[in-house]
Amino acid sequence: MEWFHCNACFQTSGQNFAVSSCGHIFCERCINLKQCSVCHTNCNYLPISEQMKPQEQVFFKDPMKLIQTRMEHIAQIDLFQRKQKERVIAFFRHKSTELERRLKEVNDQCYRQVSELKRENAELLKPLSQRRLRLPVSPGTFQTNGNTRRMSLPVAVTSPATANLEISWKGSETSTQVIAWQSGHMTPNNFQFQFIPGSTLQSPRPWHGHFHF
């Protein structure tokens, strides 16, 4: 250490040295126990030797070596922290991949369930549509089949019967015969009427009808 010397006599070697609490170096011949020979302040002395504490020895080491040592230590710290960061990044990357895979599975499952529900809904609606097409004609409506017109009406008759109804118009020689009957496959109190026209009527006029049962 070329900078090392006694601050009083400037000797560099051959003597035991000590450093004062005020920051001055003295050889054993120049040490003044009462006060510092340079700044004249009361101070304490620490012998310079290998027995000094590391935080005290550092003041007598080459700064470049200290920097190199510190840089190596800093590089080790950086490497350690970088590996820890890489592990954290790898963990979250793996977790993200797993979550994306799980999300895709859930989406596919939901899509299949929706498709299945739509198919079941369509199957359930088919019988309803067919049932509407097969609904019976409500009472009071006419059905035309060729030249025969039938009408289903509720009639307050409990026993099956067949009756002829002949209607004639006054002033006309034509008449229309209506035949009412109840078949075995019809519900009670429901009759069907068949109109058998005669010759063409001239005009509608007041009429007197008589019934034949």
Sum up the structure in keywords.
213 residues; Herpes Virus-1; 3 domains; 2 helices; 21% strand
Helix content: 25-40%
Order of helices and strands: EEEHHEEEEEE
Largest sheet: 6 strands, antiparallel
Counted beta strands: 9
Query: How large is the radius of gyration?
Result: 62 Å
Termini separation: 149 Å
Number of helices: 2
**Classification by helices and strands:** alpha+beta
Number of domains: 3
Average pLDDT reading: 74
GO biological process, one term: homologous chromosome pairing at meiosis
Domain RING-type: 6-40
Keywords: Coiled coil, Meiosis, Metal-binding, Zinc, Zinc-finger
GO molecular function: SUMO transferase activity; zinc ion binding
